[in-house]
Amino acid sequence: MVSYVLFSLLFVLLLTGCLIFVSIFVGNGKLDSFYPYGISTEEDCEKRQDAIGNLGGWIEELDGDFHVTRVFGEKKIPGDTYSRQQLARLTSVDVESEETYIGFLNEKKDGEGYYLVLYKRSDMTISMTWLYSNQNANPRWYYIWLVMVFVCFVGLCIGMGAYLVRRIKRPLKNLTDGMNQVRAGKEMVRLDFKAEAEFADIRDDFNQMIESLENAQKEKQEAEEKKNKMLLDLSHDIRTPLATINSSIVALEQGMVPEEEVGTYYEIIRMKAERVTGLSDNLFTLLKMKSSNYKLQKTKEDLCEFLRRQCGEYYLDALEKGLEMEIAIPEEPVMYEADYTLLARVMGNLLSNALKYNQTGKFIGVSLIPGTDSLCIQVWDDGEAVPQEMQDRIFYDFERGDKARQSTGGTGLGLSIAKAIIEKHGGTLCYSYENHQNHFFVTVQP
Q1: C-alpha distances out from residue 85 to 36, 37, 113, 228, 286, Å
Q2: Between 414-424 and 262-289, two packed helices, what is the crossing angle to 10 degrees?
Q3: What is the helix (H) or strand (E) element at residue 364, kind and residue range?
Q4: Quick one: which of 109, 148, 200, 351 has the most CB atoms within 10 Å?
Q5: Which residues, 6 or more positions from 388, have their beta carbon under 8 angstroms from its beta carbon?
Q6: How far apart are alpha carbons 82 and 62 in whole angstroms?
Q7: What angle do CA 228, 231, 233 make, to 5 degrees?
Q8: At what angle do helices 139-164 and 2-26 cross, to 10 degrees?
Q9: Which run of H or of E encompasses 107?
Q10: What SS3 class is residue 406?
């Protein structure tokens, strides 16, 4: 309300100032230059001629018989003489007068004629002004007028204040209530109120922010659950071989193992120890890949030759399983900068999985599709598909493929590590089942 009062006062002052400025400009530096009264000498005519002309008027000098003897400005009425009846019509303040122009007659200072100021009647407004003084009016009406003005102004301020309360305070209260609910820990808080465009934008931004916070909280909770599951799986995967190692050692120490089976027990201990070592190595690699501080040891090599070497390492294994290996790699070199030690781990994981899980098919394949915007490495097999419910989870930590494709699973970190390595290179690793084939796509930037 205070702001509105100050605004109203400033607006009135500004409006008054603008009117005064325009009046001074039109009047060539004086507020009364264009007034039609008070002109009694030739000097007055010359001083006011331009100001009156700016408003479309002019001044005529008349002698005692109302003959025009001189014109100051541009005369717009024909004729050089006025009759008394014509002057009476010109100087009439009747708003319904048929005369186009209205005149203001001033007697010369020397009494020997007149000065007639003429304006276009449609440009003039005749009004009456009440001049208050203790001598000519009852002061009671003056005070009544002041009280009425004050009451109207206060009423206007109160009305504007109520309007601002409805338009501003209520939306602010709704926003504050929503924030207090969020601060108190309430979930699914949403604001739903009608308001002006600015507050509607704030409302929508608030709802979007809350939705983002809820999604972030949900992702955090899922990450926490995933981490706890990983720790449980890790504990299980470590505890099982360690328990086997421990029981084997106890049996050997107490002489409970027949002489001919001692070697078998030592082999079991070695295998379980290798499993624990492999698990710790996989975890270490996975943590390195997910660390923002780890730097890849990149070299620029021929990607085609690298893939041929990888296929060669698994070619005999494929033949032993009765599988044919189809290779579609360009003859021309495709230079690509990467950490090839880690990239070999990715290809080794994908090829070994294709061999391990392809129990019903006859083929595995590797292809490279070079492009201007990306390089796509594809590893596929025609074995049994990964079940639909598992396809979105096969890249999770400790998610074993043997749950889906009946085999002796590993640590469940292979695909998770492969995905982390490719993402470290700025690429993507994804799975799809197309044309009765399992496809793993590695896409990187050239």
Answers
A1: 21, 21, 17, 110, 112
A2: 30
A3: strand 363-370
A4: 351
A5: none
A6: 9
A7: 110
A8: 120
A9: strand 101-107
A10: coil
pTM for the model: 0.49
Six-digit token string for 49: 């001629």
- Which residues, 6 or more positions from 50, have their beta carbon under 8 angstroms from its beta carbon? 28, 33
Q: What is the DSSP string of 192-218?
A: -----HHHHHHHHHHHHHHHHHHHHHH
Q: Nearest to residue 433, comparing CAs of 396, 405, 403, 406?
A: 405
User: Rounded to 5 degrees, what are φ and ψ at 210?
Assistant: -65, -40
- Residue 384 is given by DSSP the state P
What integer pLDDT is reported at residue 25 of this predicted model?
61
d(CA 419, CA 350): 11
CA-nearest of 143, 95, 146 to 122 is 95
Cα end-to-end span (Å), the chain: 65
Type and span of the H or E element at 87: helix 84-90
Chain centroid to CA 134: how far? 67
Residues of the chain with pLDDT under 50: 401-409
Distance CA 285, CA 420 (A): 9
CB atoms closer than 10 angstroms to residue 106 = 19
Give the Cα separation of 169 and 206 in Å (integer): 17
DSSP letter (8 states) at residue 385: P
Give Dmax (Cα) for the chain. 158
What is the rounded CA–CA span in Å between residue 286 and residue 342? 11
CA 136 vs CA 92, 140, 144, 148: distances in Å: 27, 12, 16, 21
Cβ-contact 174, 199 below 8 angstroms: no
> What is the Cα–Cα distance from 163 to 157, expressed in whole angstroms?
10
3-state secondary structure of 443: strand
Are 86 and 29 in contact by the 8 Å Cβ rule? The answer is no
| Residue indicated by tokens 């309300």 | 1
Q: How far is the C-alpha of 381 from the C-alpha of 436, rounded, in Å?
A: 9
Could you give the CA distance from residue 289 to residue 438 in angstroms, rounded to a whole number? 26
Cα separation, 426 vs 442, whole angstroms: 11
Question: Amino acid identity of 242?
Answer: L
**What residue has token string 């030690």?**
341
Q: What is the DSSP string of 262-304?
A: HHHHHHHHHHHHHHHHHHHHHHHHHHHHT-TT-----EEEEHH
CB-based burial of residue 308 (10 Å sphere; 0-12 exposed, 13-18 middle, 19+ buried)? middle
What is the predicted pLDDT for the residue at 305? 95
